[in-house]
Amino acid sequence: MQSFEFSEHSHRRYNALSDEWILVSPHRTKRPWQGKVEKVSDIKRPEYDPNCYLCPGNSRAAGLNNPQYSDVFVFQNDFSALVSDVPEGNFVQGELFQATSERGMCKVICFSPRHDLTIPEMEVSDIRKVIDVWCNQYQELGKLDYINYVQIFENKGDIMGCSNPHPHGQIWSQKSIPDLPDKEGKKQMDYYCKNGRTLLSDYLESELRMGDRIVYSNDYFVVLVPFWAIWPYETMIISKRPVQNLLNLSDTERTAFAEIYRQIAIIYDNLFETSFPYSAGIHQSPTDGKDHPEWHLHMHFYPPLLRSATVKKFMVGYEMLANPQRDITAEQSAEKLRGLKKIHFSKHS
Ligand code: H2U
Ligand code: ZN
Predict the structure, then answer these.
(1) Which residues of 12-32 are buried (b: 16+ CB within 10 A; e: fewer)?
(2) pTM beyond cutoff 0.85
(3) Is 250 inside any structural domain?
(4) Which ligand approaches the C-alpha of residue 159 most closely?
(5) Domain total for the chain?
(6) Tell me: the pLDDT tens digits for 252-272?
(7) Could you say which ligand is closest to the alpha carbon of residue 60?
(8) Nearest residue CA, atom 12 of ligand 1?
(9) In 267-277, which positions are buried (b, 16+ CB within 10 angstroms) versus exposed (e)?
(10) pLDDT tens for residues 220-233?
(11) Annotated catalytic sites, by residue?
């Protein structure tokens, strides 16, 4: 019997950050593929769209008007999933029925007044303004007595359910710590108590030593395909320094964050020469007033595309009923992403 190889043999990998397992089946990449591989040409958008509810000066669905903003613009979501004026309440009936009221606040953040841009097409200095607004929002929302957790995210592309191509993200903040960051928090806490270092500092140090899952790095951040990645081209930006949240970043680190966010988005667009869809978001310490030395700031990118601009991975069948599964290994994905030009494909001559 040959020895076990990641690139040849089916195996399970452990997600040390979220305490979950995934199944990797590299031998399946050899199976025939008879589906279509289509190229899509992304439609060129105007700089200003009079019908866009996010463009400067336009009116939104609920009747409010956007100001003539010139860089980043944040507003309270007109259709917020979480609102502040909810009465305290619990519903408990035996062991099997539990509910509790939840307060919160949701915001929308326009990354640029330009309707036609996306993060990879923006200047680093303009993305830096987005980072600054994230920092301010994290701080302001976090100060509210009923907000203990702030989730910053971006949905990009219609297949991710994004409702409008105008570059924007969202911020949902709430009283409870939602499941995924809560699980990560607990794993990081266990690790920190045992080792006195953050889980992601040690993880990053090992990844940098091994090198085969690293996609790109600058002086302050690294982007890599995590060992336990589920989505074919899933990545994570991790800060080199173990900072708990955005507010601990120095001025230089904020700019470096903007640079690496743009860079991974360029690499993604270059992969299938399309405006690459994903959901991405920041995980950082809760805003519950406690110190969280165990928390290490990072940003996840979950892109659904598998083979081309139109062929996506489906999380169905075994994934829905058992656990996530992938064919191409994290190392193979990283190698592909690493090899892509760092200039946006539309600018290649
Ligand atoms: P996406 O990031 O998924 O595209 O969502 C955009 C958000 O914008 C969505 O949560 C809000 C929706 O409620 N929205 C407004 O707040 N005002 C509008 O006029 C339309 C959309
Ligand atoms: Zn617009």
Answers:
(1) ebebbbbeeebbbebeeeeee
(2) yes
(3) yes
(4) 1
(5) 1
(6) 999 999 999 999 999 999 999
(7) 1
(8) 79
(9) bbbbbbbbbbb
(10) 999 999 999 999 99
(11) 168
